[in-house]
Amino acid sequence: MIWIQAIYQPTTLFSLRPSWTTSSGGKSLLLPSPYALKTAVLDAAIRTSGLGQAEQAWPWIRDMGIGVQLPPQIVVTNLFAKILRLRRNPATPGSADVGPFQKTIAYREYVYHPQPITLAFAVPDGQAAQLGDWLAQISYLGKRGGFVQLLAPPIPLADSAGFVLLTADVTSFPLNGLVQQLDDCDPKMKFVEANIYDSKKPKRVVRHVVLPYRLAKSSRAYSLYQHTG
């Protein structure tokens, strides 16, 4: 296996709702989950190399080890936003908002990363060049609109030293850490289950990752997380 490093500059705020939350309670993870990163690579593979090659590459994409280097601070903006939601019952004739949608409000969080996001991917030796091509095609992470820009061509690394591993099992729980529940691909997840146009549901596992952060300040409008390292 070889580690490949890719550095992305976020150009907008990041948001990715945990799978266990509802659409109204839109809390956000602090960083992309392994599942989001792997499906982003799969999406780039399909768009640039075709469905057949992407399907052949799916087993090693699914099994990639992933690490991230974290900035000294992360800021989360907390807000309520107006949204449109499909109606459960027909609107009253003559009302101001007649139609298939109704207006409501929902809680949302948007994450500001003050520094570029540095990611590391562990792949088989023969797939490093192919992964580098696909990483260059990723334009957003998390929700649509969370745009990122690759700052330099991906490069190989000797190891994952200095990275927080998102795909490793937790063996200890630091008292000053922050737990995030991150989705990852099930080791037995097939390509057809990753295909959003197929009726089969994707198989996921939840990884409990301890990030070296503490809540330094908070208010009604924001939360500031400080790196403990």
What does this protein look like?
With 229 residues, the protein is α+β, with helices and mostly antiparallel strands. It has one domain: Alpha-Beta Plaits, CATH 3.30.70. It has four helices and 13 strands. The chain has helices spanning 34-49, 51-62, 128-135, 191-194, and strands spanning 2-10, 25-26, 65-69, 73-86, 101-112, 117-123, 148-150, 155-157, 164-165, 178-185, 204-211, 213-218, 222-227. Strands 1, 3, 6, 7, 8 and 9 form a six-stranded antiparallel β-sheet that branches. Strands 2-5-4-13-12 form a five-stranded mixed β-sheet, with no helix packed on it. Strand 12 (213-218) and strand 13 form a beta hairpin. Helix 1 runs antiparallel to helix 2 (51-62). The chain is globular, with a radius of gyration of 19 Å.
